[in-house]
């Protein structure tokens, strides 16, 4: 791959921002209002922002210290065990499998949000009219059309990426630049309409399904799990490190992308809470549009919905790129099925892309029987939990480097890196425990992860053949 085809710092930053500021920015204000009081939301942002910043610093540091390990945070799992051992292969494959599952499941959250905002222009997408009865199940017109729109978007992006990863990355940059400018404009407009009285008491009570009051700590936990979805994608530059011009650009893009996304998320989530009453916000399937309509009228709603569509197109493109790149890079390091190494003549990972999107298509069927908001909530919890383990693995691997001194030669940064990795590890463990408290979510996520064991013998066989080949060529 020629140098002119490599990804520069701006394109990498756009991938980070574009993947982070995706479906979450449009649906998160509703999820947060439901999960916690304004005070709980503020504290959740502080907790999540600190934890993810530490994780981002770990990603950037590892990209520089271990430039040969490409493809995402999950790839470090194999480095925690003796090289070439069964434990090394198993851990590398299972963490890559879980991360991959999270990717294509998360794609569905973005795609369904696109359909939600498209309904601003085409209200028929929310129609409750029953077009057919499948047994005792009523197939509604809105759900059917949403399914068709989501399917068309998925495979349209598939065709674009097959034309080349680098050109798709540049297209994502244009979409990301447009949405960042648009969101900052929204923040400026919302500042003038912000009303503290609309927010209500900062510590307003929240209740669970049984009508019991949720403590402030419980609210923070609930909101922290929701806000974490906003940060999924912070590792995007790291996943594409093999295609970067310089490894230092990966760290710069990760930190810059995180700070830009954090400013947008915090600004918008609080401003929307000061524009829409809590009852209306909790019921909204497109809270940003509803907020801007409340400020400037229907015209503003159409403008913001149009911006949302552009934003979500870019995010969809970026996440589908990511979901194909992860198993492709893992396969190059012997940690995934060899068939995922197949490329087309544009050097796009064609097999990985096709299978990832075929599996995402299965998740899109959830739009047939659920509202778009319900489908969004379902997949973000499954996808988020699938990401947490690789995040923890990266932090633990950084701790291992600090303790053993590998890649360090007496640098004063060793202690700092150790503190950062320790905080990131503790944060990851806490969120994993909090996120698996719901037994249904835990069991479903565990089932998706365990399904990868079916393919492990093939991965182990391929890894053994690769080691034998390397020995013969040595």
TrEMBL record:
This entry carries the following GO cellular component terms, namely:
plasma membrane
Q: Which residues form a coiled coil?
A: none
Where in the cell?
Cell membrane
Q: Transmembrane region positions?
A: 45-64, 97-121, 141-161, 173-194, 223-242, 254-276, 291-322, 351-372, 378-403, 415-433, 439-459
Keywords attached to this Swiss-Prot or TrEMBL record, sorted alphabetically, are: Cell membrane, Membrane, Transmembrane, Transmembrane helix
Instruction: Give the main location.
Output: membrane
Q: How does it sit in the membrane?
A: Multi-pass membrane protein
- Point out the signal peptide segment: none
Query: Which Gene Ontology molecular function entries are recorded, alphabetically?
Result: transmembrane transporter activity
Q: Which domain of life is it from?
A: Bacteria
Tell me yes or no: is DNA repair among this UniProt entry's keywords. no
Protein name as catalogued: Arginine:ornithine antiporter
Q: Which PANTHER family match?
A: AMINO ACID TRANSPORTER-RELATED (PTHR42770), ARGININE_ORNITHINE ANTIPORTER-RELATED (PTHR42770:SF14)
Has keyword Transmembrane helix? Answer: yes
